[in-house]
Amino acid sequence: MKKAVVLLSGGLDSATTLAIARHEGFECYALSFAYGQRHAIELEAAARLAQALGAAGHRVAHIDLRIFGGSALTADIAVPKHRGNTEIGTGIPITYVPARNTIFLSFALAWAEVLGAADIFLGVNALDYSGYPDCRPEFIEAFTRMANLGTKVGVEDTAHWHIHTPLIQMTKAEIVKRGIELGVDYSLTTSCYDPTPQGLACGACDSCHLRRKGFAEAAVPDPTRYA
Fold first, then answer.
1. To bridge 14 with a disulfide, which of 55, 123, 184, 192 should be the other Cys (CB 3.0-4.6 Å)?
2. Positive or negative, the Cα torsion across 127, 166, 135, 16?
């Protein structure tokens, strides 16, 4: 069984990605981040998902992106609420965390090299998403080239890196349907950018909007607990 590192945020997309990686026969090692985000609720969700979906290991890397700020998720900046589909799909929102996926993938690359894995799974999506530049196919292709140029196994040709993005051309509804097929319990996930201290989703941020839209279009009951 080949090993793979799977980035696991605790959200709907990363949970589905972990389920897909396991379904494809990989021994999965889940990697989450305590990066100074607004809440730790997503890390609790990631731990639940890693166990429920049979990850062979789960690590949490601690880095503090609050020292840079620049995002509503890592600084004292209000999270946008009550935006419609057109507004969400226009421009790069303040919830974008500068270079986050570049940083996360670099950590995944390091752990994968130690594990002897050549595969990394990432739940980015270029259709129903909030305009983040590091969720696009061009970014993934460029990072893969960098990985094969800047690692020992890449330079020595003992492995060729593969960054899997199985959700990148799927709508949120298609993602929900695929996860249901694979037995994902979405009540274990959290997607909200600004949940209550009790873990209830705000129901008004971009992420909540896209999540609700996905369940509705998939005709699947939304198990999210909203405030």
1. 123
2. positive
Nearest to 9 by CA among 41, 51, 36, 53: 41
Number of domains in the chain: 1
Taking the CA of residue 208 as centre, how many other CA atoms within 13 Å lie in the half-sphere pointing to its CB?
A: 19
Straight-line distance from the first to the last Cα atom of the chain, in angstroms, rounded to the nearest whole number: 42
Task: Take residue 89 and report the two structure tokens written for it.
Answer: 């799909």
- CATH number, residue 211: 3.40.50.620
67 vs 32, 114, 134, CA distance in Å?
19, 28, 20
Residue 223 lies in a domain: no
Task: Please write down the HEC assignment for all residues of 73-112.
Answer: CCCCCCCCECCCHHHHCCCCCCCCCCCHHHHHHHHHHHHH
**Contact between 139 and 101 (Cβ < 8 Å):** yes
The answer to whether residues 112 and 119 touch, using CB atoms and an 8 Å cutoff, is yes
Q: CA-to-CA distance for 93 and 152, rounded, in angstroms?
A: 36
Chunk the chain into consecutive blocks of 10 residues (it has 227) and report each block's average pLDDT, rounded to whole numbers: 96 98 98 94 97 98 97 96 86 93 98 96 82 90 95 85 96 96 98 93 95 96 95
In terms of residue numbers, what domain contains 102? 3-218
Domain-located, residue 50:
yes
pTM value is 0.96
